[in-house]
Specification:
heterodimer, A: 416 residues, alpha+beta, Nucleotidyltransferase, domain 5, Substrate Binding Domain Of DNAk, Chain A, domain 1, 3 domains, six-stranded mixed sheet, 8 helices, 23 strands, B: 251 residues, mainly alpha, Serine Threonine Protein Phosphatase 5, Tetratricopeptide repeat, 2 domains, two-stranded antiparallel sheet, 13 helices, elongated
């Protein structure tokens, strides 16, 4: 089974979930650590047993902590993002142990592709996660990261077409906070641009069970009423083909009234593994080259500019793209090598995806060694530090034994 | 406005050694550069299966390798072989490919000594003096009456003399320059001989050596005037010391 795992991995402050591609059904399947109880979530916690080097993880760690057998370490991802080497190591241990729920003989080299999905993405979170992945020795090129919104997009795009004929809504209810998202497809462009935007947010007061007049039923009815109003407000403005409900808040059936409203002329789905499945679909997509050209997801982390150069390729002048729009900034990097032919600078072409902004940028190469024409070989690399901020690095790589590299590099920061 | 020639993304892990130039190459662009700039050094040793294998395995250019294998197996000419490489890489323009093809075409009719002399000249330019001397010796060993004129051999001797001079072996250089003048006493050969003698001996000895060779007084004076400007006697190299340091036996 070497190199066969295609995975989706959801990681939040509180829990993790894993999905694995099943080649027989050609669909993602959630890994079930509860041995048939369909409790897919693994508490994101570790516990180091006193006097031992071994860790307990997930439910086992929580139980051990309750029994007073040690101190629970939770919030793994956020601690790892604080540049704490030990926390990074613990996150790596947790990921490795949790991946054993898919297969007890887990080896990092068996991972063909893994996509992590996080509620939100920040530079620090990514750094912590990538450092943990490096410790696991999973090659970076096999690792993808996306936020919940993008996972929602990939999930929806792998459902039946009629479920997205019009807009698609998502209600995410976690920790007394209900958020609503809308997925829209702009069909007039090619590729069709898909966006996921937040349309509303509503907080519920936590249930006060200590209140003397507490009656669970009335609290639920009140909540249902509020949710119904919230949903009605949203559904009035647009046509929706399908609605998805996810989050731990939807575990209990406290919203019969709202459900009746939502189901009117629409398909409604409820589940806990939407995002992790979306992440697994992304892993599958990445391995199927040539797929997914019909739609282009434009989220808040997507680069909206194409960066390239006009080059001579096999004697013909053509545009060579180094960075393509529609890629997450943290996953965007590109490089190319070229020879200078009658010039001492580099001219980059930058164009926004909607073609409203097109620029030419000249990078001067001060102190470039003097060499005959077509013997100065340079490598241009582009990396992003934020969605609108990139760094260009030009390196003199030399031209064989005739003109060895001078070791010079030039760097330039660019605001898009 | 200039251009940017996009390079093939693959760089060989193991270089290909071009024997004719004595260099290792790692990329297809370097191979093209060799074909364009050192066309006189290109010989049939390049037209080998080894190069095709290198293009195929190391550079991972199977399409080009296939075309090169075909040229190899059907005994194509150097011109055709080089054209296939240049046309499939985009390193140079069509006009340049045409120019190189014509040169290579012409080289098919160039005699072996002429080609070897060009190699020697390239090696000399590339500071590979010992190999250059070897190449010139090969040309001189091939000498047959009536095939090439004295001027050609004069240039060969002069090249050899230059290589010795670069190795600070000025007496050997002077002997070569004597031979060059014997073959064809061109202005350059005579001037080179005077320079070699000037660097080999003290000024008195230089005068004596010139007298022995029957070099006219005016020519000597004219040379000395220029030589003193370029290289004053006070900074004259101590030939004996250089000989000790650089060890002529090693050459």
């Amino acid at each position: 089974m070497a190199g066969e795992w295609i995975l989706g991995y959801e990681l939040t402050r509180r829990y993790a979930q894993i999905c694995c591609y099943n080649p027989k059904t050609k669909e993602p399947e959630s890994a079930d650590p509860s041995m048939g109880l369909s409790k897919f979530q693994i508490p994101a916690a570790l516990l180091k047993l006193p006097g031992s080097e071994d860790y307990l993880y997930g439910h086992e760690a929580v139980r051990a902590a309750a029994d007073g057998r040690g101190i629970l370490t939770d919030n793994l991802l956020y601690r790892a993002s604080q540049e704490d080497a030990r926390a990074v190591e613990e996150l790596a241990v947790f990921i490795r142990k949790s991946l054993r729920t898919v297969n007890t003989g887990f080896r990092p080299e068996d991972v063909r592709r893994i996509t992590f999905t996080l509620p939100q993405i920040t530079g620090k979170l990514l750094e912590g996660l990538y450092r943990a992945v490096d410790l696991l020795k999973i090659p970076r090129e096999r690792v993808g990261v996306q936020d919940y919104r993008e996972s929602f997009y990939t999930y929806v795009m792998h459902q039946k077409q009629e479920l997205r004929s019009y807009a698609v809504a998502l209600f995410l209810y976690e920790k007394n906070l209900m958020s609503c998202y809308e997925l829209s497809i702009h069909r007039k462009s090619f590729p069709k641009v898909v966006t996921v935007s937040k349309t509303g947010e509503m907080a519920f007061l936590p249930e006060d069970k200590t209140y003397l007049g507490y009656a669970g039923g009335s609290y639920a009815r009140e909540k249902d009423q509020k949710f119904s109003q919230f949903a009605q407000e949203m559904l009035r403005t647009k046509l929706y083909s399908s609605i998805y409900l996810t989050g731990d808040g939807f575990e209990e059936p406290w919203f019969p009234e709202t459900l009746k409203l939502l189901c009117r002329g629409r398909r409604v789905f409820s589940g806990r593994n939407l995002f992790v499945k979306g992440a697994c679909y992304r892993s599958m997509e990445e391995l199927e080259s040539g797929q997914g050209t019909e739609f282009l997801y434009m989220g808040q982390h997507k680069i909206t500019y194409n960066i390239g150069m006009e080059v001579l390729r096999n004697g013909r002048k053509e545009y060579f793209g180094i960075i393509s729009a529609g890629v997450n900034w943290y996953e965007a990097s590109g490089s190319c090598e070229f020879l200078l032919d009658g010039t001492n600078g580099i001219e980059l072409l930058i164009q926004s995806i909607d073609r409203s902004d097109a620029r030419k940028i000249l990078i001067p190469l001060d102190g470039l060694p003097e060499r005959p024409n077509r013997t100065t070989r340079l490598r241009l690399s582009i990396e992003f530090g934020a969605v609108r901020e990139c760094q260009l690095t030009v390196e003199d790589v030399g031209f064989g034994e005739w003109y060895p590299s001078s070791g010079k590099t030039w760097t330039e920061k660019l605001k898009l | 406005m200039g251009n940017y020639i996009l390079c093939h993304e693959r760089r060989a892990k193991r270089p290909y050694y071009i024997e004719a130039a004595g260099v290792n190459i790692w990329t297809i662009e370097e191979l093209c550069y060799f074909l364009c700039e050192y066309v006189w050094l290109v010989d049939r040793s390049l037209l080998s299966e080894k190069l095709c294998d290198w293009v195929d395995k190391e550079l991972q250019m199977p399409r080009l390798a296939k075309l090169l294998y075909a040229q190899c197996y059907r005994g194509g000419s150097l011109k055709e072989f080089s054209q296939v490489i240049l046309e499939n890489t985009g390193y140079c323009s069509k006009n340049e490919i045409y120019r190189i093809a014509r040169l290579l075409d012409g080289m098919e009719h160039v005699s072996e000594p002429e080609r070897l002399k060009q190699k020697g000249d390239y090696l000399l330019k590339d500071h590979k003096y010992r190999r250059a001397i070897g190449m010139y010796n090969q040309v001189l060993a091939m000498r047959r009456r009536g095939t090439l004129d004295g001027h050609f051999y004069s240039e060969v001797w002069r090249g050899k003399g230059n290589a010795y001079a670069r190795l600070f072996l000025f007496r050997e250089a002077a002997k070569c320059m004597d031979m060059a003048c014997e073959q064809w006493a061109s202005r350059e050969a005579r001037s080179s001989r005077l320079a070699a003698l000037y660097l080999s001996y003290t000024e008195e000895e230089f005068q004596e050596q010139c007298r022995q060779r029957g070099i006219p007084q005016e020519e000597r004076e004219e040379f000395l005037q220029k030589a003193r400007d370029v290289y004053p006697r006070s900074r004259h190299l101590d030939a004996a010391r250089l000989r000790r340091e650089y060890g002529r036996d090693n050459v």
